[in-house]
Amino acid sequence: MTSWTGRVLTYLAIIAVAGGIAYANKPFWIQLAIGVAISAILALAWDILSRTGQVSLGSAAFFGLGAYSTALIEPLLGITLAWVGVVVVCALAATLLGLITLRLRRMYFAIATLGFMLSLQVAVLVFGDWTGGAGGIAPPVVAGGEPCWQLLIIAGLLLAAVITSDIFLTLRFRPAFFMIRTNPELAAASGVPVVKTKLLAFIVSGVFAGLAGACYGGLYGYVVPTDVFTPNWSVLPLAIAILGGMDTTLGPLLGAILLKALEEGARTFIGGTGYQVVYGAVIIIFVMALPQGVVGLLSKLVRAVRKRETKPSSVSPVAGLRTEP
Question: For residue 55, which phi and psi values (nearest 5 degrees)?
């Protein structure tokens, strides 16, 4: 199976699963699929930036910015331009923040992006006359509140995020990202535009995180600052990407499915708030046991099977019989 064949099958699987769940019209499965899709979009956005070696804790900033942008723009320009506005606002915010912070590396960049998220949370409270303050704000509802259409729209956004992620894994981008991540000085000496490449990844990451936030805010038509501008939305994509497998497209998808399954299973069998302890412990165990994520484990298994199938045989020089070495 070629690389592009696998990618096309992934696209078709997303379309088929989303279409099948929407056609079945089971509320539980629809809400579960929407939760997986939003988490996967956010994880893919985080992973695209991490391929340049930058670990961001600012996903929640763009997530919240997307939700608030639709709420503030829609009364002025309408629903369509509100969604366009999310792309423009998040792209501009990522550009400005990136020009300031992308020269930082490792924990310094992570702290800077976390500070950006906290600053936006304070700004929402300070400018409460426009943002609703602690009382929250009402973004436009996605698809008029129809769950099936909400799922299909969010699945379409997930498909766009998956295709974008695959584009950044092609030979046009992946070698440059690898060089920047491992040795930025060598990358610069080799002619790779380090800052511009990082900025491009940051903008794409911020836009998809903002669109995920707009979808989240549009599910119920109401958000408060503590719903979106919270570290949870910064840690979640990181955990999903690590659990599924970083620097891949399939990893964040599998990680989102697995994490949501663990959450629902723990909530069902334990209930209350105690499930969160077990849920967190299981995540830690998975991360420790699978440092390369689920995709890394699957790749090892596939290589082991192929190696066993192609194991060379030797011919007996005496009897002409084939014997295993």
Answer: -100, 110
